[in-house]
Design a protein that fits this description.
By secondary structure, the chain is an alpha/beta fold. It is 45% helix and 12% strand. The protein has a 6-stranded parallel sheet with strand order 2-1-3-4-5-6, with helices on both faces.
């Protein structure tokens, strides 16, 4: 069983091109919507990084078998946390265009979202769907994916994003999220869009070297390389899964 974890401001629709490229059937994978991201918020759900990690651990536990874990953006960070917390649940893991790195200080938008009042002001501008869609495409999201995703970026998602980023101080990781990376199981894999404007390729290169994890660079691709280069990513995943 494969488990896909989407990022921000995405939904499971992100995985459509990759699912097609892999030729998967619905019984082959699980791609849950994170609470607040086109999915209801459970009562009392805190929308923090630890709450989302715990949510995904519980989701994987219910599957009942070891899984191949794939995550993008915040889904990549949650995937690494889950694999660090519960390596016994993981057969293989692969993350794309985000890693837990104590030396990375977050991109500009992440820092704004993490700042009270400023983050709320930024979110007001995200209510204009046409402007938001254009901004995501400018940031590297494939246009067809942006058209699918933008209608689902509602008030609940915007508020969930603010809480999530503030729980991580705008993507500044420390403590157990960093130290527990020593427990990541093997095999693992990084897949990175070379021209990502949010998380520079050097972050992936540093992580790969420090943790001895293979890195595949999708030349000329951006932050959403997992969708933009779905066929290429599918080939990398198939190679990884053959090692598991």
């Amino acid at each position: 069983m494969i488990v896909f974890i989407h990022g921000v401001p995405d939904t499971p629709r992100l995985w459509g091109p990759l699912v097609d490229a892999l030729g998967l059937q619905p019984s082959d994978y699980s791609a849950p919507a994170l609470p607040g991201f086109s999915a209801p918020l459970p009562p009392g759900f805190a929308c923090t990084k630890d709450a989302y990690a715990d949510y995904m651990v519980a989701h994987i536990e219910r599957i009942g078998t070891k899984i191949d874990l794939v995550g993008h953006d915040w889904g990549a960070l949650i995937a690494q946390r889950v694999a660090s917390l519960r390596p016994d649940l993981i057969r293989t893991w692969c993350v794309t265009n985000a890693v837990i790195d104590p030396d990375y200080r977050g991109h500009r938008t992440a820092r704004m979202w993490a700042t009270p009042l400023l983050g709320e002001f930024v979110m007001l501008n995200m209510r204009n769907q046409a402007r938001l869609e254009a901004g995501l495409v400018q940031g590297g999201m494939p246009a067809d994916l942006a058209r699918e995703e933008v209608p689902h970026i509602d008030r609940t998602m915007r508020q969930s994003i603010l809480k999530l980023y503030r729980s991580a101080i705008g993507l500044r990781f420390s403590g157990p999220w960093v130290s527990d990376l020593a427990r990541l199981p093997s095999p693992g894999q990084l897949f990175w869009g070379e021209t990502d404007p949010f998380v520079d390729l050097s972050v992936a290169e540093r992580f790969a070297k420090q943790h001895n994890v293979p890195l595949h660079v999708a030349k000329g691709a951006g932050h959403w390389a997992c969708a933009e280069r779905a066929d290429e990513f599918a080939g990398v995943l198939k190679t990884l899964w053959a090692k598991g």
